[in-house]
Every structure is written in structure tokens, then in C-alpha cells.
Amino acid sequence: MSVVAFVRKQDNGEWSEKELSTLGAAFGATMARGAGRQWETGTTENGDAQLYLLGPLPEQACELCVSRIGGRYILEDGCGRLLFEHRNLDRVALHAKAAVPSTSWLMVRAITLWCAIRNTIHEKVEPLLVEGEELFVQFVPHIAALA
Amino acid sequence: MKHGKHQDVFADRPAAKAASDTKRLRKLAGDWLKQRRADVGLSQADLAARLGLKYYTFISQVENGFSRVPTEIMGAWARELGLEPAAFARHLLVYYEPEMHRLLFGAESK
What we know:
The structure holds two protein chains of two kinds.
Chain A: H1 17-32, E1 38-43, E2 49-54, E3 62-69, E4 72-77, E5 82-86, H2 89-99, H3 103-146
Antiparallel strand pairs in A: 1-2, 2-3, 3-4, 4-5
Helix pairs in contact in A: 1-2
Chain B: E1 4-5, H1 13-39, H2 44-50, H3 57-63, H4 74-80, H5 85-96, H6 98-105
Helix pairs in contact in B: 1-5, 2-3, 4-5, 5-6
């Protein structure tokens, strides 16, 4: 007779390595952007596990919180708004990844792109326009004479 | 409540110092809120239910010092703890916005 060992489902207390790895993967890119972003863990008074994604320095306020209550994962923002809940942590992590505030990052990208476009216009297009204008000025008398 | 820190990425020391103060004060606010809740014999789940929250996890988030009491539910939170909302808000300002508190109320009683 063989006994199949089932992994005991953790209902409260510590996060398992697998759970932390799933959430770490979801928040990894956000934390890599630096500025003091980090995540911390804690528990409720009932011993339910919580994980907090903290914002940038100096406030480092909670931006997202994932809690595990009775095998169910709860995703909230730093103001207590319920964003998503499910028994499957992968799905919750997906929503968490999408919910990470990224406005500043997008703004930086947009500004960089705009500067690059302006620089290209300034360096490449403007000389062509000036050249075209000079040619036009040169040919106008000839065209006028023909007309 | 048990906490664990998993990444420490302090880029510059002054910012790190400010962050450490902010976090410490938020934690003190959380401890004070926890004590006031205990005084009226409410659990985190009781308080969450009275504030109309589906889960009590946000109460824990605030009491663990990771978030602030949102302004829009500050009055209700105060009443559930049996406190006068203005005094409650003023006391929380000591932790959440100490400089603002000092400007508004000076060095008088916290």
C-alpha cells in the first residue's frame, strides 16, 4: 500500500515559500524600479498572513495588500478598497501586478519618448525644411519669369 | 502582530531617515488605534463590519502601521471607538502629519 502525501494547506500564520515566490514574481519588476520600494509581511490579530507592497521613499505607504483568510486571497489597495479575491494565488498575483501604480514610470517613459522625437525633428527634419526653403527662394524668380 | 522585512533598498540616507520616521510614527498610530479598539472591546472583524468593510484585513493593515485611517471614514472610525471625531483626527495628525499638527496646534498637548 502506498500513501500519497498531500501538502497541508496553510490557513493562517506564515506565508509559504511558494506563495512568497508567486507574489515576489508579481512585484519584482515594481521593486526593481528602486526608490525604496519593498514589501513586508505581517499578520492580522487572528493570525492571518498579510503581505504589503510599500510605495517609494519617503512615505513608503502601503500601495497593495494581499491577505490570506481561510485559503482565500484578498487583494486590497492602501485605502482598503477591495480589488480582487480568489482561492487561486496566481490569479490574485496577476491582478496585483496589474494594479501596481505605475503612473510615474509611464510618465518618465512618455517624457523620454517625447524628448527623443523632438530631438530627431530638430536634427533631421529642420535642416531639410531650411534647405527646401532656400531652394524655393532660389527658384521663385525663375518660375515667375516663366509664368 | 509579527512583521518581516524582505527587501531593504535605501538609496540615500536622508530619505531613509525620513522614511524611517514616517514608518515609526504610522506604527505608533496603529498601536494607539489598536489600544483604543481594545478599550471598547471590539475585534478587528467587529470594527470592519461596523465600518461596512467586507474584510477586516484593512483594519489590520492600518493597525500594523502600513496605512493611514482614510479621511472619509475617520469620523465613523472615531465614533465606533467611542471617541469624538475632531479629537480623534487631531490626535492622528500627531502621527500622520506631525509638522501640520505643530503648525496648527503648536507644542500644546498631543
